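Q: Hi! First time doing this. I have a protein sequence and I read that you can turn it into a structure. Is that right? Here it is:
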Amino acid sequence: MKRLILLVTLAGALVATWYLSSSNHSDISLLNARAIQVHGQPGTFVIALTIQNDGDAKRLLSVESPSADTVEVMNPGYEGAPIIIPADSNGIMAADGAHIMITISADGFDEGAFVPLSLTFEDYGVVTTRLLNAGSGMAAMNHGGSAGISVMPSPKLGIFAPDGFRADGFDIKLDVEDFSFVLAPDDAQHIPNEGHAHVYLNGLKLGRLYESTFTLGAVPAGEYELRVALNSNDHRPYLTKGDAVQKTLSFKLEQ
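A: Yes, that's right. Below is the predicted 3D structure, encoded as structure tokens:
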């Protein structure tokens, strides 16, 4: 009888462990992971992917692939800052913000082929996806200053948090002049003073913005910089006197 009770208890514990593990790992999905070959550098790729977070805020710790020679998370201008995907939000790894670089020298990763890619999140675990070699013909959108565009009058941008900063999330308001938000297709032509905004948290792109309000999901305690930049319909950054039309909000959240 005691043995039967022990077996039932053990089975219940295993079922509970499986349930908790399954429900936990349903929070994160890795979508549309693509390796885009860097021009003139065979075997070197920039990785673009979307991290869909349907749960609490997650911190990205590391990226690995058993097929790669090197894997590195790049975050220009924010080196050492935590990469946080806010609660119930997306994080977009892309060349204009935090992104992943890999090198693969082995044969077999030709255009159209796949290799495994794993991302590890703090207090959550490892999530794996298949990484597609999209080749060199699929160019990443160039959001760098060298591809920027200047217009007259130049768009103006201000950002503020009308109700203050809160760890459980807060609203951001954009104040724009000489600029109109337009929801246009990816292949839309440039129309002066039209476009959308890009929102970044500690260098990680959170997405495009087609209106003047944005809600930042809950994030853990820490120091953050939220940056918003204006882009044209054809995805080039607007410039004024050679600098991007962008603003930042720096804030610190306590426990």
